[in-house]
Every structure is written in structure tokens, then in C-alpha cells.
Amino acid sequence: MSKRDLKKYLSELDKEQLQEQLIELYEKFSPVKEFYDFVFNPKEDKLLQEAKLKISHEYFPVSNTKKRKRPKMRRSVAQKYIKHFITLGVDPFIIADVMLYTIEIAQTFASENSITQDAFYKSIYNSYDQAVQFAIANGILSEFTSRIRAITEETIQQKWKNKSDFLLIIERIDE
Fold first, then answer.
1. pLDDT tens digits, one per residue of 28-61
2. What is the pLDDT of residues 110-152, one digit of tens each?
3. CA 56, CA 142: separation in Å to the nearest integer?
4. Among 84, 173, 77, 169, which residue's Cα sits nearest to residue 128?
5. What is the pTM of this model?
6. For residue 169, what are the CA distances in angstroms to 27, 83, 92, 124?
7. End-to-end Cα spacing for the chain
């Protein structure tokens, strides 16, 4: 069904029928419920803390036993939160914060652990590039420039193989 057909169909319904359909969608589909719950009670701080906690556990897992859990280091966990936040319409400042936090926690992990997989560094670079592009697109780059620069400095300090890629982005920002 096209958007135009949907509009036509909806215009033929009376107010009560529309309400019934919305309530049915709300009860039947969890994304619809999440959307309306967020619209009427946007607890962005709670969402932010939950996301940061889950992301940090990817690199520094917490175990109930004395045995230390192995970190999974999955970028996809952060990407899922970021995509979800964008879908909900969360404030761009919060989304950019999560994007940069993901990189910062990965760099903290890399500073304490030897990482040999090139895919890790490429993945973090991709996250960095996306975060910078997001900040530019939303007109909030100036608020995050110091964190972006700090991330680049950290890649230099840790002697990442792809540190020049990070430096190229900083050069583009400075132009």
C-alpha cells in the first residue's frame, strides 16, 4: 500500500475507528508502543545511561562469578542503540554523545589490551567518521570538537595503524 492509498483509507475512517486502529497497533506491535511511550514520556537520560552501560559491558563485562568474562567488543550493540535513538527522534546531542562514547570506551579498552585485529581499528574509524558526519549534519559539531580531537590524539598516542585516517577527518574539520 502506498502512502497516498493509506492517507485515502484513513480519511474515510471516523475518529472512533482511527482510535481503535491506533490502540490495536499499540497493543500488537512493540515498536509502536515504544514510540508512543517515548513521545509521551521521553526519558532520554534513562535511555542514555542504559545505552552507555550496555556499550561499556561490551568491552568491560561484569560477571557475578570470580571468573572474568571475555569482552565481546561488538560495535553492532552501539549501532543498534544509535539507530533506535534516531528512529525515536532522540535529541541529536544525546545521539552524538553515544556515538563518541562508543569510540572512547573502545579506546580505553585498546589502551589496556593488545588488539591485533585490523577489523577493530577499521570499525572504530567507521564509527568516528559516522559520528563526525552526524555532528556536521545536525549542526552540533562545535559542541563536540574537543572530544573529536581527543579521540584523534588518543589514536596517535596509542600508535594505531590507521591514525592518519583520523587525522584526515580533523584536517577536513579545520578547513
1. 988 888 888 877 877 888 889 999 999 999 999 9
2. 999 999 999 999 999 999 999 999 999 999 999 999 999 999 9
3. 26
4. 169
5. 0.81
6. 45, 23, 20, 13
7. 46
Amino acid letter, residue 154: E
Which amino acid type is present at position 111? Answer: S
CA distance 23 to 156: 54
The CA distance from 58 to 56, in Å, is: 5
The separation between CA 91 and the C-alpha centre of its own chain, rounded to angstroms, equals 12
Q: Distance between CA atoms of 103 and 108, rounded to whole angstroms? A: 9
Cell numbers 594505531 correspond to 160
pLDDT score for 147? 97
- Among residues 111, 29, 119, the alpha carbon closest in space to that of 74 is found at 119
CB atoms within 10 A of CB 151: 23
The chain-wide mean pLDDT, for the chain, equals 91
Q: Residues 6 or more apart from 3 whose CB is under 8 A from it? A: none
User: What type of residue is 31?
Assistant: P
Contact residues for 130 (Cβ-Cβ < 8 A; gap 6+): 99
